[in-house]
Amino acid sequence: MALANFFDKSALAASYVLSNYDRSDFERRLGESNVEIVYDYAAISSNEGKATLEMTIKLLARMYPNLIITGIGIDVDTYRVQLEGMAQGINPHIDLSNDQPTASVCIGNTAIERDVPVFYIGSDNWAINFSDAKPVGSGLSENPFAAGAVACYGAANIFRHVFKDQLKNSQYDTDFSLSLLDYELKERSGSDNGSSIGKKKICLKETALIGLGAIGNGTIWALSKIALLEGTVYLIDPEEVELSNIQRYVLANQGDIEKYKTDLVMTQLENSRLTLVPHRGDWADFLNNRGNWKVDMVLVAVDSAEHRISIQASLPKHIINAWTQSDDLGISRHFDFEKDACLGCLYPPAAGIKSESLLMAESFGLPHEEVLIRQMLYNNDTIDEKWISKIAEAKSMPLEALVPYVNAPVRDFYSKVVCGGIMLGEVNKQAETPMAFQSALAGILLAAELIIENENLRLTPLENVTKLDLLSPVKEFLNEMVLKPSSSRCICQDDDFRKRYQSKY
Protein backbone atom coordinates (compact mmCIF):
# COMPACT_ATOMS: atom_id res chain seq x y z
CA MET A 1 0.00 0.00 0.00
CA ALA A 2 1.30 3.48 -0.92
CA LEU A 3 0.29 5.32 2.25
CA ALA A 4 2.11 8.63 2.74
CA ASN A 5 4.81 8.98 5.38
CA PHE A 6 2.58 11.50 7.20
CA PHE A 7 -0.27 9.00 7.39
CA ASP A 8 -0.33 9.12 11.21
CA LYS A 9 -1.67 12.69 11.04
CA SER A 10 -4.26 11.73 8.43
CA ALA A 11 -5.42 8.91 10.70
CA LEU A 12 -5.65 11.32 13.63
CA ALA A 13 -7.75 13.77 11.60
CA ALA A 14 -10.12 11.00 10.53
CA SER A 15 -10.52 9.80 14.11
CA TYR A 16 -12.27 13.07 15.00
CA VAL A 17 -15.02 12.75 12.40
CA LEU A 18 -15.63 9.01 11.86
CA SER A 19 -17.84 7.00 14.19
CA ASN A 20 -16.54 3.59 15.30
CA TYR A 21 -13.11 4.63 14.10
CA ASP A 22 -10.61 1.79 13.77
CA ARG A 23 -7.17 2.51 12.37
CA SER A 24 -6.72 -0.82 10.58
CA ASP A 25 -10.14 -0.46 8.93
CA PHE A 26 -9.29 3.13 7.98
CA GLU A 27 -6.07 1.96 6.31
CA ARG A 28 -7.91 -0.84 4.50
CA ARG A 29 -10.54 1.48 3.08
CA LEU A 30 -7.97 3.93 1.81
CA GLY A 31 -5.96 1.12 0.26
CA GLU A 32 -9.04 -0.16 -1.56
CA SER A 33 -10.05 3.30 -2.84
CA ASN A 34 -8.98 4.32 -6.34
CA VAL A 35 -9.95 7.97 -6.69
CA GLU A 36 -10.16 9.33 -10.22
CA ILE A 37 -9.59 12.94 -11.28
CA VAL A 38 -10.95 13.56 -14.78
CA TYR A 39 -10.30 16.73 -16.80
CA ASP A 40 -10.58 17.84 -20.41
CA TYR A 41 -9.04 20.46 -22.67
CA ALA A 42 -11.66 23.03 -21.63
CA ALA A 43 -10.55 22.67 -17.99
CA ILE A 44 -6.87 23.33 -18.72
CA SER A 45 -7.74 26.19 -21.09
CA SER A 46 -9.33 28.15 -18.24
CA ASN A 47 -7.57 29.80 -15.30
CA GLU A 48 -10.46 28.78 -13.09
CA GLY A 49 -10.34 25.21 -14.37
CA LYS A 50 -6.60 24.93 -13.78
CA ALA A 51 -6.99 26.32 -10.26
CA THR A 52 -9.72 23.77 -9.49
CA LEU A 53 -7.65 20.93 -10.91
CA GLU A 54 -4.53 21.96 -8.99
CA MET A 55 -6.34 22.22 -5.66
CA THR A 56 -8.11 18.90 -6.30
CA ILE A 57 -4.77 17.12 -6.76
CA LYS A 58 -3.31 18.87 -3.71
CA LEU A 59 -6.18 17.66 -1.53
CA LEU A 60 -6.70 14.12 -2.78
CA ALA A 61 -3.00 13.19 -2.93
CA ARG A 62 -2.75 13.98 0.78
CA MET A 63 -5.37 11.40 1.73
CA TYR A 64 -5.58 8.64 -0.86
CA PRO A 65 -2.67 6.33 -1.75
CA ASN A 66 -4.17 5.44 -5.16
CA LEU A 67 -5.10 8.10 -7.72
CA ILE A 68 -6.19 7.83 -11.34
CA ILE A 69 -5.55 10.98 -13.39
CA THR A 70 -7.55 10.86 -16.62
CA GLY A 71 -7.25 13.45 -19.38
CA ILE A 72 -9.91 13.54 -22.10
CA GLY A 73 -9.46 15.12 -25.53
CA ILE A 74 -6.57 16.77 -27.32
CA ASP A 75 -3.43 18.25 -25.76
CA VAL A 76 -4.04 16.83 -22.27
CA ASP A 77 -1.17 14.34 -21.87
CA THR A 78 1.54 16.90 -21.08
CA TYR A 79 -0.63 18.42 -18.38
CA ARG A 80 -1.24 14.99 -16.86
CA VAL A 81 2.52 14.60 -16.38
CA GLN A 82 2.53 17.87 -14.42
CA LEU A 83 -0.36 16.73 -12.26
CA GLU A 84 1.30 13.38 -11.56
CA GLY A 85 4.47 15.19 -10.54
CA MET A 86 2.45 17.38 -8.17
CA ALA A 87 0.90 14.30 -6.55
CA GLN A 88 4.28 12.57 -6.21
CA GLY A 89 5.76 15.67 -4.59
CA ILE A 90 3.19 15.26 -1.83
CA ASN A 91 3.40 11.46 -1.52
CA PRO A 92 6.40 9.97 -3.36
CA HIS A 93 4.90 6.48 -2.91
CA ILE A 94 1.52 7.29 -4.41
CA ASP A 95 0.20 4.70 -6.89
CA LEU A 96 -0.92 6.28 -10.17
CA SER A 97 -1.28 3.04 -12.14
CA ASN A 98 -4.85 2.00 -11.27
CA ASP A 99 -7.66 2.01 -13.83
CA GLN A 100 -10.79 0.95 -11.91
CA PRO A 101 -12.12 3.92 -9.93
CA THR A 102 -14.24 3.72 -6.81
CA ALA A 103 -15.32 7.38 -7.24
CA SER A 104 -14.56 10.16 -9.71
CA VAL A 105 -14.36 13.93 -9.63
CA CYS A 106 -14.66 15.62 -13.02
CA ILE A 107 -13.54 19.11 -14.11
CA GLY A 108 -14.47 20.57 -17.51
CA ASN A 109 -17.28 20.24 -20.03
CA THR A 110 -17.16 16.50 -20.71
CA ALA A 111 -19.67 14.02 -19.30
CA ILE A 112 -18.28 10.60 -18.38
CA GLU A 113 -19.90 7.22 -17.83
CA ARG A 114 -18.85 5.32 -14.72
CA ASP A 115 -20.42 2.66 -12.52
CA VAL A 116 -19.36 4.66 -9.48
CA PRO A 117 -20.36 8.12 -8.16
CA VAL A 118 -19.14 11.02 -10.32
CA PHE A 119 -18.92 14.53 -8.89
CA TYR A 120 -18.73 17.35 -11.44
CA ILE A 121 -17.10 20.48 -10.05
CA GLY A 122 -16.45 23.92 -11.50
CA SER A 123 -16.81 27.64 -10.93
CA ASP A 124 -17.89 30.84 -12.60
CA ASN A 125 -16.14 33.89 -11.16
CA TRP A 126 -17.47 34.08 -7.56
CA ALA A 127 -19.87 31.11 -7.90
CA ILE A 128 -19.14 27.53 -6.84
CA ASN A 129 -20.89 25.10 -9.21
CA PHE A 130 -21.43 21.43 -8.31
CA SER A 131 -23.43 18.56 -9.79
CA ASP A 132 -23.69 14.83 -9.29
CA ALA A 133 -25.28 14.44 -12.75
CA LYS A 134 -23.73 16.63 -15.46
CA PRO A 135 -20.68 18.80 -16.26
CA VAL A 136 -20.69 22.33 -14.84
CA GLY A 137 -17.66 23.76 -16.68
CA SER A 138 -15.22 26.43 -15.53
CA GLY A 139 -15.44 30.18 -16.00
CA LEU A 140 -12.98 32.32 -17.91
CA SER A 141 -12.12 34.83 -15.19
CA GLU A 142 -8.88 34.97 -13.19
CA ASN A 143 -10.81 34.67 -9.92
CA PRO A 144 -9.30 31.77 -7.89
CA PHE A 145 -11.66 31.76 -4.92
CA ALA A 146 -14.70 29.77 -6.05
CA ALA A 147 -12.39 27.67 -8.26
CA GLY A 148 -10.35 26.58 -5.24
CA ALA A 149 -13.35 26.30 -2.94
CA VAL A 150 -15.22 23.91 -5.22
CA ALA A 151 -12.23 21.53 -5.16
CA CYS A 152 -12.78 21.28 -1.40
CA TYR A 153 -16.40 20.29 -2.01
CA GLY A 154 -15.25 17.67 -4.51
CA ALA A 155 -12.75 16.19 -2.04
CA ALA A 156 -15.36 16.25 0.73
CA ASN A 157 -17.87 14.32 -1.35
CA ILE A 158 -15.24 11.69 -2.18
CA PHE A 159 -14.57 11.34 1.56
CA ARG A 160 -18.30 11.01 2.28
CA HIS A 161 -18.52 8.23 -0.30
CA VAL A 162 -15.57 6.23 1.01
CA PHE A 163 -16.68 6.50 4.65
CA LYS A 164 -20.45 6.86 4.20
CA ASP A 165 -21.34 4.35 6.92
CA GLN A 166 -19.20 6.17 9.50
CA LEU A 167 -20.58 9.67 9.01
CA LYS A 168 -23.83 10.86 10.56
CA ASN A 169 -25.03 12.75 7.46
CA SER A 170 -23.06 11.35 4.56
CA GLN A 171 -25.41 12.02 1.66
CA TYR A 172 -23.73 13.48 -1.40
CA ASP A 173 -24.26 17.01 -2.58
CA THR A 174 -26.52 17.30 -5.60
CA ASP A 175 -26.79 20.21 -8.03
CA PHE A 176 -26.05 23.57 -6.39
CA SER A 177 -24.52 26.96 -7.12
CA LEU A 178 -23.19 29.01 -4.21
CA SER A 179 -21.94 32.60 -4.49
CA LEU A 180 -19.07 33.63 -2.23
CA LEU A 181 -20.31 37.22 -2.39
CA ASP A 182 -23.41 36.49 -0.30
CA TYR A 183 -23.23 32.72 0.49
CA GLU A 184 -26.67 32.16 -0.96
CA LEU A 185 -27.69 29.19 -3.10
CA LYS A 186 -28.79 30.23 -6.56
CA GLU A 187 -30.11 28.80 -9.79
CA ARG A 188 -27.18 28.37 -12.13
CA SER A 189 -27.21 30.94 -14.92
CA GLY A 190 -25.08 31.49 -17.99
CA SER A 191 -22.52 33.50 -16.07
CA ASP A 192 -21.90 35.02 -12.67
CA ASN A 193 -22.27 38.79 -12.94
CA GLY A 194 -20.20 39.59 -9.87
CA SER A 195 -17.16 41.84 -10.17
CA SER A 196 -14.32 39.93 -11.81
CA ILE A 197 -10.82 39.57 -10.41
CA GLY A 198 -7.80 40.17 -12.61
CA LYS A 199 -9.23 42.94 -14.80
CA LYS A 200 -7.73 45.78 -12.77
CA LYS A 201 -5.08 46.39 -10.14
CA ILE A 202 -6.04 45.67 -6.53
CA CYS A 203 -4.19 47.67 -3.87
CA LEU A 204 -4.52 46.14 -0.42
CA LYS A 205 -4.49 48.25 2.68
CA GLU A 206 -1.79 47.30 5.18
CA THR A 207 -2.59 43.68 6.06
CA ALA A 208 -1.21 41.15 8.55
CA LEU A 209 -1.78 37.41 8.16
CA ILE A 210 -1.31 35.78 11.57
CA GLY A 211 -0.71 32.04 11.29
CA LEU A 212 0.79 30.33 8.26
CA GLY A 213 -0.44 26.83 9.06
CA ALA A 214 -3.15 24.90 7.25
CA ILE A 215 -5.61 27.79 6.98
CA GLY A 216 -2.86 30.28 6.18
CA ASN A 217 -1.61 27.96 3.41
CA GLY A 218 -5.05 28.08 1.77
CA THR A 219 -5.08 31.87 2.06
CA ILE A 220 -1.67 32.28 0.45
CA TRP A 221 -2.50 29.78 -2.31
CA ALA A 222 -5.51 31.88 -3.31
CA LEU A 223 -3.74 35.25 -3.09
CA SER A 224 -0.85 33.94 -5.18
CA LYS A 225 -3.26 33.40 -8.09
CA ILE A 226 -4.11 37.13 -8.38
CA ALA A 227 -1.60 38.74 -10.74
CA LEU A 228 -2.56 42.40 -10.21
CA LEU A 229 -2.41 42.40 -6.41
CA GLU A 230 -0.33 45.05 -4.63
CA GLY A 231 0.14 46.35 -1.09
CA THR A 232 2.02 45.39 2.06
CA VAL A 233 1.33 42.05 3.74
CA TYR A 234 2.99 40.94 6.99
CA LEU A 235 3.43 37.14 7.22
CA ILE A 236 3.59 36.11 10.86
CA ASP A 237 4.45 32.64 12.18
CA PRO A 238 7.30 31.38 14.41
CA GLU A 239 7.37 27.71 13.38
CA GLU A 240 8.96 25.36 10.88
CA VAL A 241 7.13 22.89 8.64
CA GLU A 242 7.06 19.39 10.13
CA LEU A 243 6.39 16.11 8.36
CA SER A 244 2.95 15.80 9.96
CA ASN A 245 1.99 19.23 8.58
CA ILE A 246 1.99 17.94 5.01
CA GLN A 247 -1.29 16.16 5.82
CA ARG A 248 -3.17 19.45 5.31
CA TYR A 249 -0.73 22.23 4.29
CA VAL A 250 -1.62 22.63 0.62
CA LEU A 251 1.61 24.52 -0.18
CA ALA A 252 3.93 21.96 1.40
CA ASN A 253 5.72 19.09 -0.32
CA GLN A 254 8.26 16.59 0.98
CA GLY A 255 11.11 19.00 0.23
CA ASP A 256 9.64 21.67 2.51
CA ILE A 257 10.12 19.81 5.81
CA GLU A 258 12.09 21.93 8.32
CA LYS A 259 11.64 25.11 6.29
CA TYR A 260 10.22 28.03 8.20
CA LYS A 261 6.60 28.56 7.28
CA THR A 262 7.43 32.16 6.40
CA ASP A 263 9.93 30.86 3.81
CA LEU A 264 7.38 28.40 2.45
CA VAL A 265 4.79 31.08 1.72
CA MET A 266 7.38 33.57 0.47
CA THR A 267 8.33 31.00 -2.19
CA GLN A 268 4.67 30.68 -3.20
CA LEU A 269 4.46 34.47 -3.58
CA GLU A 270 7.84 35.00 -5.26
CA ASN A 271 6.21 36.29 -8.47
CA SER A 272 3.71 38.48 -6.64
CA ARG A 273 3.61 42.28 -6.78
CA LEU A 274 2.92 42.36 -3.05
CA THR A 275 5.43 43.87 -0.65
CA LEU A 276 5.99 40.96 1.74
CA VAL A 277 7.34 41.33 5.27
CA PRO A 278 7.92 37.93 6.93
CA HIS A 279 8.23 37.68 10.71
CA ARG A 280 9.46 34.51 12.45
CA GLY A 281 7.67 35.09 15.70
CA ASP A 282 4.21 35.40 17.18
CA TRP A 283 1.83 38.37 17.05
CA ALA A 284 3.01 39.88 20.36
CA ASP A 285 6.63 39.67 19.25
CA PHE A 286 5.74 41.26 15.90
CA LEU A 287 4.00 44.21 17.57
CA ASN A 288 6.84 44.76 20.03
CA ASN A 289 9.41 44.78 17.23
CA ARG A 290 7.25 47.01 15.06
CA GLY A 291 6.59 49.55 17.79
CA ASN A 292 3.43 50.77 16.05
CA TRP A 293 0.34 48.81 17.09
CA LYS A 294 -1.88 50.33 14.40
CA VAL A 295 -2.76 47.72 11.76
CA ASP A 296 -5.63 48.32 9.34
CA MET A 297 -6.52 44.70 8.50
CA VAL A 298 -5.64 41.52 10.36
CA LEU A 299 -6.38 38.06 8.98
CA VAL A 300 -6.57 35.53 11.80
CA ALA A 301 -5.58 31.95 10.98
CA VAL A 302 -4.42 30.72 14.39
CA ASP A 303 -5.48 27.54 16.14
CA SER A 304 -6.72 28.53 19.58
CA ALA A 305 -9.25 30.79 21.28
CA GLU A 306 -6.52 32.10 23.55
CA HIS A 307 -4.50 33.39 20.60
CA ARG A 308 -7.58 34.96 19.02
CA ILE A 309 -8.49 36.83 22.18
CA SER A 310 -4.95 38.16 22.55
CA ILE A 311 -5.05 39.38 18.93
CA GLN A 312 -8.33 41.17 19.56
CA ALA A 313 -6.87 42.72 22.72
CA SER A 314 -4.20 44.43 20.60
CA LEU A 315 -7.07 46.30 18.87
CA PRO A 316 -6.51 46.05 15.11
CA LYS A 317 -8.87 48.28 13.15
CA HIS A 318 -10.47 45.43 11.16
CA ILE A 319 -10.33 41.65 11.70
CA ILE A 320 -11.36 38.73 9.52
CA ASN A 321 -11.15 35.39 11.31
CA ALA A 322 -11.18 31.86 9.90
CA TRP A 323 -11.57 28.63 11.84
CA THR A 324 -12.07 24.89 11.48
CA GLN A 325 -13.51 22.32 13.85
CA SER A 326 -14.81 18.80 13.43
CA ASP A 327 -18.38 19.74 12.51
CA ASP A 328 -17.95 23.01 10.63
CA LEU A 329 -15.61 25.72 9.41
CA GLY A 330 -16.21 29.36 8.90
CA ILE A 331 -15.44 33.03 8.64
CA SER A 332 -16.23 35.85 11.04
CA ARG A 333 -16.05 39.57 10.25
CA HIS A 334 -15.17 42.20 12.87
CA PHE A 335 -15.06 45.68 11.39
CA ASP A 336 -16.24 47.93 14.25
CA PHE A 337 -14.96 47.10 17.74
CA GLU A 338 -17.32 49.57 19.41
CA LYS A 339 -20.59 48.60 17.71
CA ASP A 340 -20.25 44.99 16.58
CA ALA A 341 -19.39 41.70 18.23
CA CYS A 342 -15.61 41.54 18.50
CA LEU A 343 -13.48 38.45 17.97
CA GLY A 344 -13.49 37.80 21.71
CA CYS A 345 -17.30 37.63 21.71
CA LEU A 346 -17.10 34.44 19.64
CA TYR A 347 -14.83 32.72 22.17
CA PRO A 348 -16.27 33.30 25.65
CA PRO A 349 -14.71 31.44 28.58
CA ALA A 350 -16.25 27.98 28.78
CA ALA A 351 -16.67 25.71 31.76
CA GLY A 352 -14.85 22.42 31.68
CA ILE A 353 -11.88 23.53 29.54
CA LYS A 354 -8.82 21.64 30.73
CA SER A 355 -5.51 23.26 31.54
CA GLU A 356 -2.58 22.69 29.21
CA SER A 357 -0.79 20.58 31.81
CA LEU A 358 -3.82 18.34 32.46
CA LEU A 359 -4.43 18.00 28.73
CA MET A 360 -0.87 16.80 28.24
CA ALA A 361 -0.88 14.53 31.28
CA GLU A 362 -4.04 12.77 30.09
CA SER A 363 -2.71 12.50 26.53
CA PHE A 364 0.44 10.85 27.88
CA GLY A 365 -1.66 8.38 29.89
CA LEU A 366 -0.30 9.89 33.12
CA PRO A 367 -3.05 12.08 34.62
CA HIS A 368 -1.57 11.63 38.10
CA GLU A 369 1.62 13.39 36.91
CA GLU A 370 -0.17 16.64 36.04
CA VAL A 371 1.62 18.70 38.70
CA LEU A 372 5.05 17.58 37.48
CA ILE A 373 4.12 18.32 33.88
CA ARG A 374 2.91 21.75 34.93
CA GLN A 375 6.33 22.40 36.43
CA MET A 376 8.02 21.14 33.28
CA LEU A 377 5.96 23.54 31.17
CA TYR A 378 6.85 26.45 33.44
CA ASN A 379 10.57 25.62 33.22
CA ASN A 380 10.44 24.62 29.54
CA ASP A 381 11.99 21.27 30.56
CA THR A 382 12.75 18.48 28.12
CA ILE A 383 11.35 14.95 28.01
CA ASP A 384 14.13 12.62 29.14
CA GLU A 385 14.49 8.84 28.74
CA LYS A 386 12.71 8.18 32.03
CA TRP A 387 9.63 10.09 30.86
CA ILE A 388 9.74 8.40 27.48
CA SER A 389 9.66 4.98 29.16
CA LYS A 390 6.77 5.98 31.44
CA ILE A 391 4.71 7.33 28.55
CA ALA A 392 5.39 4.31 26.32
CA GLU A 393 4.31 1.96 29.09
CA ALA A 394 1.21 4.00 29.96
CA LYS A 395 0.10 4.12 26.31
CA SER A 396 1.14 0.53 25.51
CA MET A 397 3.36 1.80 22.73
CA PRO A 398 6.69 0.42 21.52
CA LEU A 399 9.46 2.39 23.17
CA GLU A 400 11.34 2.81 19.87
CA ALA A 401 8.49 4.91 18.47
CA LEU A 402 9.18 7.60 21.09
CA VAL A 403 12.97 7.37 21.42
CA PRO A 404 13.61 9.90 18.59
CA TYR A 405 11.94 12.55 20.75
CA VAL A 406 14.18 12.16 23.82
CA ASN A 407 15.35 15.60 25.01
CA ALA A 408 12.61 17.44 23.11
CA PRO A 409 10.99 20.29 25.08
CA VAL A 410 7.72 19.06 26.54
CA ARG A 411 5.58 21.28 24.29
CA ASP A 412 7.49 20.14 21.20
CA PHE A 413 7.07 16.52 22.28
CA TYR A 414 3.31 17.01 22.66
CA SER A 415 3.06 18.76 19.30
CA LYS A 416 5.05 16.16 17.37
CA VAL A 417 3.93 12.96 19.10
CA VAL A 418 0.33 13.64 20.14
CA CYS A 419 -0.84 16.34 17.71
CA GLY A 420 1.36 14.83 14.99
CA GLY A 421 -0.58 11.58 15.22
CA ILE A 422 2.23 9.27 16.34
CA MET A 423 0.30 8.62 19.54
CA LEU A 424 -3.38 8.03 18.78
CA GLY A 425 -5.49 8.23 21.89
CA GLU A 426 -8.89 9.53 22.85
CA VAL A 427 -10.22 12.36 20.73
CA ASN A 428 -9.47 15.69 22.36
CA LYS A 429 -11.99 18.34 21.36
CA GLN A 430 -9.66 21.11 22.54
CA ALA A 431 -7.03 20.25 19.92
CA GLU A 432 -8.82 18.93 16.89
CA THR A 433 -7.01 18.07 13.68
CA PRO A 434 -9.05 19.08 10.62
CA MET A 435 -9.27 17.31 7.31
CA ALA A 436 -7.22 18.93 4.53
CA PHE A 437 -10.31 20.01 2.58
CA GLN A 438 -11.71 21.77 5.66
CA SER A 439 -8.56 23.79 6.34
CA ALA A 440 -8.04 24.66 2.68
CA LEU A 441 -11.59 25.94 2.29
CA ALA A 442 -11.33 28.09 5.43
CA GLY A 443 -8.11 29.62 4.09
CA ILE A 444 -9.49 30.27 0.62
CA LEU A 445 -12.58 31.95 2.09
CA LEU A 446 -10.34 34.09 4.33
CA ALA A 447 -8.50 35.35 1.24
CA ALA A 448 -11.79 35.92 -0.58
CA GLU A 449 -13.17 37.99 2.31
CA LEU A 450 -10.04 40.16 2.25
CA ILE A 451 -10.53 41.01 -1.43
CA ILE A 452 -14.30 41.46 -1.09
CA GLU A 453 -13.87 43.89 1.81
CA ASN A 454 -10.93 45.72 0.24
CA GLU A 455 -12.82 46.26 -3.03
CA ASN A 456 -16.25 46.92 -1.44
CA LEU A 457 -17.82 44.17 -3.55
CA ARG A 458 -20.81 43.61 -1.24
CA LEU A 459 -23.53 46.15 -1.81
CA THR A 460 -25.35 44.81 1.25
CA PRO A 461 -23.31 43.81 4.32
CA LEU A 462 -23.63 40.19 5.44
CA GLU A 463 -24.21 38.86 8.92
CA ASN A 464 -20.90 38.70 10.76
CA VAL A 465 -20.51 34.89 10.75
CA THR A 466 -20.64 32.36 7.92
CA LYS A 467 -20.51 28.62 8.69
CA LEU A 468 -20.14 25.68 6.31
CA ASP A 469 -20.11 21.94 6.96
CA LEU A 470 -18.25 19.88 4.37
CA LEU A 471 -19.26 16.58 5.96
CA SER A 472 -22.93 16.96 5.03
CA PRO A 473 -24.86 18.38 2.06
CA VAL A 474 -24.72 22.13 1.62
CA LYS A 475 -27.31 24.00 3.69
CA GLU A 476 -29.61 26.78 2.52
CA PHE A 477 -28.78 29.25 5.29
CA LEU A 478 -25.07 29.74 5.99
CA ASN A 479 -24.93 33.22 7.53
CA GLU A 480 -25.81 34.17 11.09
CA MET A 481 -25.53 37.25 13.28
CA VAL A 482 -23.62 37.09 16.55
CA LEU A 483 -24.34 40.02 18.87
CA LYS A 484 -22.30 41.55 21.64
CA PRO A 485 -22.98 39.75 24.94
CA SER A 486 -25.44 41.37 27.32
CA SER A 487 -22.93 40.99 30.16
CA SER A 488 -19.73 43.03 30.47
CA ARG A 489 -17.40 40.04 30.38
CA CYS A 490 -15.91 40.77 26.94
CA ILE A 491 -13.16 43.31 26.37
CA CYS A 492 -15.32 45.16 23.82
CA GLN A 493 -17.57 46.16 26.73
CA ASP A 494 -14.64 47.49 28.75
CA ASP A 495 -14.39 51.31 28.81
CA ASP A 496 -10.59 51.33 28.77
CA PHE A 497 -10.41 49.13 25.66
CA ARG A 498 -13.12 51.16 23.94
CA LYS A 499 -11.38 54.46 24.65
CA ARG A 500 -8.08 53.06 23.41
CA TYR A 501 -9.71 51.89 20.18
CA GLN A 502 -11.23 55.37 19.70
CA SER A 503 -7.88 57.04 20.24
CA LYS A 504 -6.14 54.71 17.76
CA TYR A 505 -8.63 55.17 14.93
Percent of residues in beta strands? 15-25%
Q: Uncertain spans, ≥5 residues at pLDDT below 50? A: 425-430
- What is the molecular shape? globular
Q: Major sheet: size, sense and barrel closure?
A: 8 strands, mixed
**Radius of gyration in whole Å, from Cα?**
23 Å
Distance, first to last CA? 58 Å
The level 1 CATH classification of the largest domain is Alpha Beta
The share of residues in helices is 25-40%
Describe the structure.
The protein has 3 domains: 7-186, Rossmann fold, CATH 3.40.50.720; 202-350 and 435-504, Rossmann fold, CATH 3.40.50.720; 356-419, no CATH class. It is 35% helix and 15% strand. It has 16 helices and 17 strands. α10 (305-313) links the parallel β13 (297-300) and β14. The longest helix has 19 residues, at 436-454. The protein is globular and about 65 Å long. Residues 199-350 form the THIF-type NAD/FAD binding fold domain. This is THIF-type NAD/FAD binding fold domain-containing protein. InterPro entries: Prok-E2_C, ThiF_NAD_FAD-bd, Ubiquitin-activating_enz.
Jot down its keywords.
single chain; 505 residues; alpha/beta; Rossmann fold; eight-stranded mixed beta sheet; seven-stranded mixed beta sheet; Prok-E2_C; ThiF_NAD_FAD-bd; THIF-type NAD/FAD binding fold domain-containing protein
Concise summary:
With 505 residues, the chain is of the alpha/beta class. The protein is built from 16 helices and 17 strands. It has three domains: 7-186, 3-Layer(aba) Sandwich (Rossmann fold), CATH 3.40.50; 202-350 and 435-504, NAD(P)-binding Rossmann-like Domain (Rossmann fold), CATH 3.40.50.720; 356-419, no CATH class.
